[in-house]
Design a protein that fits this description.
By secondary structure, this protein is an alpha+beta fold. The protein is built from twelve helices and ten strands. Strand 5 and strand 6 form a beta hairpin.
């Protein structure tokens, strides 16, 4: 198998004082950064892709999704994705770090309620209506106008509010059953918010071997309540959700990295490489080596 490596990109990682928010022309970005854009890569930040024009495909975590005009894609932190080879797309890219948007606990709750990036059980895209296109274009005009100015009083607050508004409009479109039947967004009551908090905790700790009781403690609920919560809303136990996250990361690394099986096991928190092989085979029905050959 020809070994590949997942490239990881950051947004001003070593310059925390720099604005953690950027907007690019999709066409210009693809031309400037190709062929890196057609290779599997991950980000430590969030990315919104708005395809104005163009037909093709976008690849996210082993799945191919069709690209059509006026489609939004939402790429979360650490998701492997890449573009096809077409360089003629018209559109925009929005990059931002969580700390740009999230300023306090209420912001964290609201960010989770967007349910655009944090939920592995939803499609990573949505189509938008003609009215939403007008609304989002108006917001992008305001964002670009503000970005063109020198730093002024309240600029970050304005940009943050425009981005919030953009994501709210996007959430409404993704939740519209007439436009996006494949997406069934959860309600934003406290139980659903707890589920999203749990999924977010799993994203941060899946390689740390936390027990169900430890996850529950972080959520200030009991293990029984957590199990009832996940079973009721998505018909899965907490253990299944953790296992699925470990498996998707194992598959990412086996497909897109040059690490050997033992190294991948260690990276995922398995002290015994042989146990990682058994664990992977139990759920994938193939050994890591067999999976790597199959996927290649």
């Amino acid at each position: 198998m020809k070994e590949s490596k997942i490239s990881e990109y950051h947004l001003h990682k070593d310059l925390p004082e720099k604005r953690q928010f950027e907007v690019f022309s999709l066409k210009e970005y693809l031309k400037k950064n190709s062929p890196d854009t057609i290779r599997p890569h991950i980000h430590s930040f969030y990315q919104v892709l708005w395809f104005y024009e163009g037909e093709g495909a976008h690849f996210v975590d082993f799945k191919k999704y069709e690209v059509h005009p006026n489609t939004l894609f939402f790429i979360g932190k650490n998701q492997v994705h890449y573009f096809d080879e077409y360089l003629g797309y018209e559109g925009i890219m929005i990059h931002f770090n969580e700390r740009f948007l999230v300023q306090n606990e209420n912001d964290i709750n609201f960010f989770l309620k967007y349910n655009l990036f944090n939920d592995p059980y939803q499609q990573p895209f949505c189509k938008i209506s003609a009215q939403a296109e007008k609304d989002l274009n108006m917001l992008m005009s305001q964002i670009n106008t503000e970005l063109s100015k020198a730093d002024g009083f309240g600029q970050l607050e304005l940009l943050r509010s425009y981005l919030n508004a953009f994501l709210i409009f996007a959430h409404r479109e993704k939740a519209n059953p007439h436009l996006n039947k494949e997406n069934k967004l959860y309600a934003t009551d406290e139980k659903h918010l707890q589920l999203l908090r749990f999924i977010d905790l799993v994203e941060s700790n899946y390689h740390g071997n936390l027990t169900i009781s430890e996850y529950a403690a972080l959520l200030n609920i009991s293990s029984k309540t957590l199990t009832e919560l996940t079973n009721k809303i998505i018909f899965k136990t907490p253990s299944m959700i953790i296992q699925e996250r470990v498996m998707i990361e194992a598959q990412r690394l086996l497909t897109h990295s040059g690490l050997n099986v033992n190294q991948i096991g260690y990276k995922l928190g398995f002290e015994d490489p042989s146990y990682f092989v058994k664990y992977f085979k139990k759920y994938a029905k193939l050994s890591p080596g067999e999976f790597r050959k199959f996927i290649s």
